[in-house]
């Protein structure tokens, strides 16, 4: 096989993508190309993906000109169809012609389905070009995003309209079509002029991009943006508020980033800092600055996507935008200050919670009841928290700037003299707002966030809004994952099932308890494993009553028991009990009068003794001691199995012995579902 190689380049030219779409699509592009090349037996070197909101690019280095050669056995017809009276049939001859083989190559092999004909076929060695065409087309088709659209008569879907596709193998075009767009050797470095540039080969493409000032590598763009922002802030003797989320957003909104320092009127820094920061970050995509004392500095850094416009022109236009938006915020803030909290709460009657779920006012009573069941909250604070949780949705400021929901609740509550912990909970109850967002940290904030999500999840389940594999238009899955993240972060001492039951009762849908709990617990399992908890231990510890605090106590007790060597014996004994009791109907209590062997009496007395004080140990949460106690039952059960024949002919004795074993199993099951534990991976510590 030839060892000549060329680089393969694919550029997808597209209208401006939402910045949040780009990272995932680049990852899909890399994974799709690498998987496709491997499946097609094409040898290649390093793969790089890069791009912006206007172009998705993948470069594969050192792609072999010809596919890898290999010999494989191909299955043909069954032996009885391939041969008749020892002679090849027309079916076999047709199969051999299709595979380019002769009768000499035929081998008959035994398979699970019987004896079949096989021939050894040599594959590969052909040019990679047609395979690259097929691969590129399939990869583009496979790219997914939260929203797609049709834009031409072909009917194909993509997040935004495709304008061109550049596909080169060295200096050769890789021909294929996607919709009405045919791949070629033209690219468009200048969005404004839309002037196409012909590319001779892969190397020239990167020279053209560099000359146009386009930074294709997102990491390099991010580094340049960060350093430019910091430099401009330092020049103003200030510090920039830079978050990873904000940087990623502007990285995928620019191709040739250029940072501009833009001052604004000093009067706006008298507004709450969070208000100004939100307006700048979320609505203008600018980075706020602060003084050394933490107060806002009357300027922001904007990341422009231009090389041609002067900084003065960019700054002048940006100042007009910033002033207009901050004047809006100032006006709404001053209007809100004229009203008291009671008027905002009353206005919740006119704000819908969701389709078929009533108003935000209707939620107040439901949330208050959930908080009572949650427990541990001072009665006065409980009432204030329930009444105030979403009152800021009725404010003018949140109506105009929805990102401030929760933040404004805290600010206005503090201004109006409510307790600090209640005010803090008003902000924290909306957390986490998205994957990776911070979680509530105060006890009241955790309680509010949990009850808020339980009410929301139960409401959507009652309204028939359960997510499907394809869609979750009401964000129920996101809400549930957020709930589980909070539970796994703080492990509150609550009865989750009782909380969900009350949540469904608020919508007259208690019949959905089992389905709703399973939906929540499935996400709880997934999030626990993502936090590096051992999967089988997680499964073993999720038992009724569903209390996050006892879940983690059980889990940690299993860890310690495993390290001390007690757990394998307990698990083996439980599985032995489960095997003999499999399919057995519900058991009554064993009758001592039917015991025939001393091992029956020994097991009976041991079980009764454990029953009497196990409840006290479990109620104290001392699961370490409980496991030590239950481990003493294992040798007694094993002696029973060695000396006593369970499945005797006498039905009364047989049933009584099964009942005795069932009573032993129930002692074990008080602590965990040991049948879920498999010793196939190392233990991980829980911090």
Shape: flat
Question: Sheet bearing the most strands, described?
Answer: 5 strands, antiparallel
Q: Which structural class matches the secondary elements?
A: alpha+beta
Cα distance spanning the termini: 55 Å
Beta-strand content: 5-15%
Q: Tell me the number of strands.
A: 20
State the helicity in percent bands: 40-55%
Low-confidence stretches: 681-687
Count of alpha/pi helices: 26
> Mean pLDDT score, rounded?
92
Radius of gyration over all CA atoms, rounded:
34 Å
Q: Largest beta sheet: what is the strand line-up?
A: 2-3-1-11-12
Structural description of this entry:
It is built from 26 helices and 20 strands. By secondary structure, it is α+β, with helices and mostly antiparallel strands. The strands form seven sheets. Strands 2-3-1-11-12 form a five-stranded antiparallel β-sheet, with helices on one face. Strands 17-19-20-18 form a four-stranded antiparallel β-sheet, sandwiched between helices. Strand 7 and strand 8 form a beta hairpin. It is flat. The C terminus is likely disordered.
